[in-house]
Task: structure prediction
Amino acid sequence: MTAVTGAPATARQLGRPRDPRLDAAIVGATLQLLAESGYAALTMEAVAALAGVGKATLYRRYAGKEQLVVDAVATLSEAPEVVEGASVRDELVARLEAVRRKSDSSLAGKIFPRLISAAADHPELMRSYRRQVLAPRRAAFAATLQRGVASGVVRADVDVEHAIDMLVGPMAYRNLIRTEPPPGPELAARIVDDVLTALAPRPDQGRDRCTSPQEDPA
Result:
């Protein structure tokens, strides 16, 4: 009995679990202020006040503004609706459609241009964003493309990183620059089909090009 009653005490010594309601309030306040004022004007004090928490609560979770903003922006990402057993084409469409939906909401649509505009003055912010948010997404695209190579949909010599740029680049352009008319759900399929056509195995791929000339049987 002594060992059993002692276990909860040990767990309490490790610290109380974080309150998810406070986490949600902090993230919501960060996103609202980021959308309204941009990164440079956002302060930890303002986030704490809007979220209704003390600054100590905020600093227990985040070392500073940069980490707070990156973690908050990461919550805007929507998980792609990838069906188990989906084709490479359909999986790429689902992943690209998630990119479109992410910037299709009014909150995300306001935040991402502000984040990009802050890149010149805050390069470490963008490095953190690329590392924590973009890199995992690119890894998921890469895994799908590699599955395409294995299944013969994508040629074996494809530059995967360039292929990801070919997929995501047009969607980012339509979301952030040429916004009229707003990109619709059909755009992801159009981009994927065009890219897969460009990446398809060549008709002569795999043929032996080093064969010696055959003598004329005549």
